[in-house]
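BUG-293 | component: ligand-complex export | severity: low

The export step for iron/sulfur cluster jobs runs without errors, but we want the raw record kept on the ticket for reference. Input record follows.
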Amino acid sequence: MRSDNIDSFKKKLHYSKALIREALKKFKNPVIACSFGKDSMVVLDMLKKYSRNFTVLWNNTLVEYPDTYKFAREIIKDWELDCVEARPKVTFWEIVEKYGFPIYSRNSKGHKQYATYKCCEELKKKPTTIALRNMNCDLYFTGLTRHESRLREFSARLYGDSFYSKTWKHWKCHPILNWTREDVWEYIRVFNIPYNPLYDKNEIPIDGGIRTGCWPCTQAIKYGKLEHLRTYYPELFNLLVVKKKFGEVMLDLRIEKYKDIKSRNTDYMRNRAYKQLGLEKTLTAHPCFFDRL
Ligand code: SF4
């Protein structure tokens, strides 16, 4: 880290710790959302330095990466966490069967793509809402950072890092809202805290960085997520692309993408040829064809 960045990191760290301490003084039932990704691990580590009186809420979507399951179980045990798992009532595959694959991101109203909206609602929002209600949560810590998406930046500008949520009916606190990815890794390095080994599977880059969370989420196909999956988790890649036929969906999407310029476009012709050849043969002949859209 450059020296001016180190100064900035120290200031942010000081601010975040103060924010956590102040928030803890005011509320009785603090809960921290933890995905066992790098950001929530940083907040969790800071929090446990000031209090043991909090509950960890893990939204286990049932489609977490194998590395996440292993890491989460180890941390829960080693750090002796009081952890509640919020699990969905329906599976990712049941949602796909009903609404299709969650391919496109949601907009700020949440309705740009219905499948994505429904999927996040069933796997994340509903189980989390029920768990928080049962826990009587009055203060909710998260590891949210503003740089992660435009939606988060928008929400950060609108609400800041600490506010009462009328929707959720509790106080929300995002202690590392203004931290960069570099700040987060600096904290992990300086305080030597464990992190999810998924981040070490990084020789195949994903645009925007590796994220924990639902492994079969197809929102990130244009960022290279499937190449990452094919390289590090070939069985999961096969399950998604072959068995659950997401490869067929990709072929159709590629044909659709080029259809307006089809007469002179070789990509269009190639996609048509692969479509005729069939998914399994195309995968054998050209596995990287499905790496990104
Ligand atoms: S992140 Fe993707 S897979 Fe996970 S709940 Fe949302 S849409 Fe579904």
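Assignee comment: Attached the raw record above. The pocket of iron/sulfur cluster is lined by residues 61, 92, 102, 116, 119-120, 123-124, 213-214, 217, 219 (CB under 6 Å).
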